[in-house]
Amino acid sequence: MSMSDITEQEIKVFLDAVDTYFSQITRERAAVRAAYLADGDHLPQTYDFTGLIAVSGQYRGCLYFSAPAVMLRHLLLVMEEPSHSDENFLDAVGEIANTLAGNSRKHFGETMAISVPVTMKGAPERIKSSVRARPYVIMVSWKKYNASLVVDIERND
Amino acid sequence: MAQDSQRFLGKYREIVLAVGFFLVFDLAVLVLNFYTSYQIAEDAVSINLAGRQRMLSQRMTKALLTLEADSTQGRPTETARAELKKTVGLFDGTLGGFRSGGTAVGGDEKPVALNAVKTDRGRQVLDDAYSIWVPYQQVLEPVLASPAVEPEKLAAAVQYARANNLKLLGLMNDLTTDIEQEASAKAQKLRLVQTLGIVLALLNFGFILFRFIRKLQESDRQIEQAQKETQEILTTAKEGLFLLDSQRRLGSQFSSSLPHVLRREIVAGAEFFPILQQMVPAATFDAARDYIDLLFGNRVKEGLVASLNPLSEVEVKVVDELGSSRSHFLAFQFNRVVADQQITHLLVTVQDVTERVNLTAQLAEAKGQAKIELEILLRLLSTDQAVLARFLGTMEQSLKHINAQFKSAAETGGEDLRQIVNHAFRAIHALKGESAALGLEMFETLAHEFEKDLVGVREKKVIEGDDLVKLTVRLNEFFERYTMVKNIIDRIAHTGQTSGSASVAAQFLDSMRKLADRIATSQEKQVQLSAELAGLDKLPEEVSGKVRNIAFQMLRNAITHGIEPPQERASAAKPAGGTVFIACKELGGGQFEFVLRDDGRGLVPERLRAAMVKSGRYSEAQVRALDDQQVVMKIFEPGFSTATRVDMDAGHGMGMDVVRDKIRALGGHLHLTSRPNQFTEFTIRFASELATAHGVA
Description:
heterodimer; A: alpha+beta; Chemotaxis protein chec; seven-stranded antiparallel sheet; 33% helix; B: alpha+beta; Four Helix Bundle (Hemerythrin (Met), subunit A); Beta-Lactamase; 4 domains; five-stranded mixed sheet; 12 strands; rod-shaped; disordered C terminus
């Protein structure tokens, strides 16, 4: 509610990063299917592989992109990557997390310190609890697959 | 200049004095030299003449003996006598000169000044010499007096001469020795004094050298120290510091942080204006240039124009290496540097005040936030706690329901987003109505803003997932305010300040009156509310809540659309103030009835048809094809409105469809009767137990 909370424009910065990634790599945009608020007490929707960046500075919390293996496999195909191991899937979500970090750095500058991307397979157990009471979950679709972008970032007051 | 010379003397007085002393010593030695050489010359004359006395004593004796021999042998005696006379005269004159000072005849027959001998030994020698010389002179006198000398007198003189010649020679020798010794002693003394003078002069010179070098070293050290301090200030200062000369160029030195603060390369001696021009908008740049010109002019006082500084807090856009533009706030301060009453430079201090500006903004925001919270608290304290708790419960459910629909759209896909948006609209609109009824402006405004966004989305031809992002942010905002108020309520509840004594019906009526007043006032209408609400207290809370919700919405519509403005009522021969009657009655058998009736303009099918055509959603032909009852039922469709303006209470084409939804949820039946220009009455029949399955029309 407070004006210092993250805004729609700031969420769009992250969404643009995901869109940019898919547009540039696959020449096919990633569309936003819908958005909702996750219950902060439960982990929001995640898929098989997750790429995460943590932020600090004037903000705190984390930001992660989670996608099912099947989507990543298709992505690797489009990228003409012959090997489809877990390693490659992790690399792919890591690369998306990297794009998120890059876009955020560009937009937030010194006010947001951004960690190196962390990638995880399965339910992201490392995300113990959320910073926001209700993290934003934005469902993104590429081709016929769904992936989620979770924005669990709060401004430090 | 006078001041300068005074300062110069002050600073170098010591050295000037020392050099003066050096000169004085040198001069003294020089004078002493003159004196010494003069003395030596004098002493040389004395020694010379004393030596001559020795020789004269012998020449005298020789001349006497020659005279005697010449006289004895009958030879002419003139030459010998003349010689004797001359030598006697010289000897006597010189001896007199030695005794009492005066002029004597020098070696070159010229008179020379002779000093009297002053030493004791010399005086003694002179006395002894005189005791011989005086009788000698006496015996010589007759010899010198006449050429025909008497042999006895000559013999007496010769005899005296023979007897005393050696004595006299000895005495003259002593005199010479004495004068020599005296001169030597004097010369020694003078040498000593001279040496002393030279030593003093040298010491003085050494002192000057020492002091001067020390002084130079000291001032060198001070300069070095000053430079070091300046350097330290310039390297340590967080502010950008530099001097601007009258050519508007940067000075040779500036603080190390300047490039960082300005976020660009800075070269010493660079022109300032081109740098500034890149940083600030053209208008600010022009103003800054004028301001700097003003400061370099002598006409205005610095303090008076300080407030005109257009760079006292200026936003500067910097493009970083990634190519994205970022804003910084810089504060430039200009101070004149004055020398000899001339403005030579401006000292420019640049600070990065981004953090301060941000903090100020945050502080202002926090103050605004605190004000909102205080307003909320005051409002909450004056609202009945039980009512409030019920309201918050409804709100939580509504918000969660909206979110659940968003979530299902996100997860399953294929959901009709328009339907979801419409649902959200109805829910938020209902919340707005209830907030208004309770006078909770903080929710009413929030709902209104949310509603505006929802309208914006709904009006789009195609609703996309992207649109839900904006709505989710709004939803989050609503949730957070809900949480905040909920927390406040819980705190108040814990401090035991709940009232909760009034009956649901009484509280409800109170809320309805407040809402009626507010809507009537904002629409410049007059409304009175009458009620019979005994049945309301008999309903379970869940049902009662739904009924109240419906009532708020219906009341809003009744006043907005039903009750006419006073003039219109007057022309229809009605009292200026309209009446709304509400009732909730128990019918028996678990059946209840809710009635809301207004004495307004009634539902006029023709007017509704016109509104439908005007909305653009129906064509003239479609409207004509509907019968009156079908037309009236259109008021329950989403997006239908007869209101001509959009405000908090009407015009979003939402209201009656909420009512329809709620009636469905209640499992109730709606009965509508109306007579043009007389009344509209809604009657809802429902059971006190909620039907488990919804969706009954």
